[in-house]
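A note from the maintainers: we've had questions about how concatenated examples are separated. There is no special marker in the raw files; a new sequence line simply starts the next protein. For clarity in this README we add a label.
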Amino acid sequence: MNKPVKLTEHQRLVFDALEQAKSPQSAYALLDAVSDQGIKAPVQIYRALDKLVAAGMVHKVESLNAFIACHDRHERHWAAFTICEACGAVGEVVLTDPEALEALGSDVEGFEVHSAQVELRGLCAACSAAAAS
C-alpha cells in the first residue's frame, strides 16, 4: 500500500476541489474553484498538482490537459481513461497488467518506461442508449 502523503494546505484544497468535481478539471478551472480560499496564482495550482500526481492521488488526462482525482488510491497503478465523445464524461480503469505496457517499450533497445497512459474514446452507456433511441 502507498505510504500516506502529508499534504500542504494548497495541495489539500486542490485535491478536495478535484474530488468534488464532476469532470476532469484544467488547472485554471481549479484556480477559479479555490481562489477564494487563498490560492491566487497558476503556479500554486501547478505545484500542488505536480505533488498530487507524483503521490498517485491525481491523474492527468493528457488529451484533455485536465486532472482527475484517482479513484483507487490504495495502490500505485497505471490507469486507462474512458472518454465519452458526446458528453465528455471520463472514467478511470485500473490497468491490471502494467507489465504489458512496459513490454511495448522494451522493443526499443535501452528504452525504460516510466509512465504510460491509455485513453479510450467512445460513448458512455447513457449517450450510447440515447443514440440508439
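[label: protein 2]
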Amino acid sequence: MKKKLLAVVIGATAAMPLMATADVSIYGRVHMSLDHLSVDKQNVTRNVNGSNVLFPNEGPNYSEVNVSSNVSRLGFRGSREVGNITAFFQIEQQIDFNEGESSFAGRDTFAGLRGGFGSIRLGQFDTPFKQARGPANLFGDQVGDMRNLTRVGNARFDERTPNTFHYQTPGMNGFNANIAYSVHEGKTAADSQDGDALSLSLTYKQGPMDAALAYEKFEEDTGRGERDGVRFAIGYNVTSELKLVGFYQTVDYDGGTPAQNDNLSSDTWGLGADFKVAPSTYIRGMWLQRDADASDSQSDLYALGLEHRLDSALRVYANYAWVKNDDNVALTPWSQARTATPLGGNGETARGFSTGIRYDF
C-alpha cells in the first residue's frame, strides 16, 4: 500500500508543471446503497480431490443485507487551448467507499486533442459500444442495471479497453460517428497474435430523440475470446415529464466449445419508461429479456425505481428488481457495477431491494 501511495505522489508531482498551465478540475461520485438481496438457492464451491468444484443450487437459500459501493470514483481532468486546438486529459479511479479500496487510473484515463476536426484521444476508456446503451440506461450502477443481462461471462461488451485510439466526428445536425480501435490488451503487443478490438457507433441526439447504433468485435486472441455484437438503444421524450426507452442487442460468441458458444451467444431486448411525478421526483421501470442459443437459458429482468433529487448533485432512491431464470442460467439483478455480488442459482429467481444515495462533485 505504501508503494502504491508513493507512486501516486510521485506521479502527481511530475504532473504539476502541466497542471499549473492547464485548466484542471477535481470531480467524483460517492454512490452507496443498502441492499437486501435474496436467491432461493445458492451455488456453492467444494474441494474435490484438491480442486475447487462448483455445485449449482446445492447451497442454502440466500437472504442477506449488504452494503455496496456502486462505482464510486475520483478523477482529475484538465484542458488547455492553443489557437483553435484544445488539448485535454483525464485520470479517473474507482474508490470502494465501503472498504476503502481503490485502483489509481483504473477507469477512463486518456489524453487527446479536439477542434473543428472533431476529437481524438489515446488511453483506456469506455468503448463507443458501451456508451451506446446510454439512451435506454434507466438504472445505471444500481440494482436493476441492464448490464446484468447484456454483460454475461466472456461474451461481455460493456468494457473499457486499454491501448485504444478513439476518433469522434464533429456534430452534424445531431449526428456523431465514433470509431475506437484497441491495438492490444497487454502492455506490449504480442507477436503474430490477433489481440485487437474494434468499436463503432453512430449516435443521434436532437429534440425529443436520443438514439445510438453500435457494432463491436474482439479478435480471437483477446483475453475472453472471439466475439462480436450489435446494439441499438433509443430514448424518446413523449412529453417533458415522460420518457420511453427501447433496447436491443445481439451477441455472437465464438471463443469456446460449441456448448459454451451457445450459452454465451444471445439476443437481449427490452422496454422502459421514466416519469417525472414532481419537479424533483421520478418513477421508472424497465423489462429486459435475454435469450441465449442454448436451451432453457432465458432470463427476464424487471426493475422498478423511485428517485428524488435533492439538488443537481445529490439524489436518493429506492429500487426493487428481480431476474427470473430458466433451468440452465443463474443471472441476478446485482452482478454489475457493485461491490456486493452474491451468486444466483440455476432456474431460481433472484430479488433485490436497494436504497441508495448518490453525491456528484
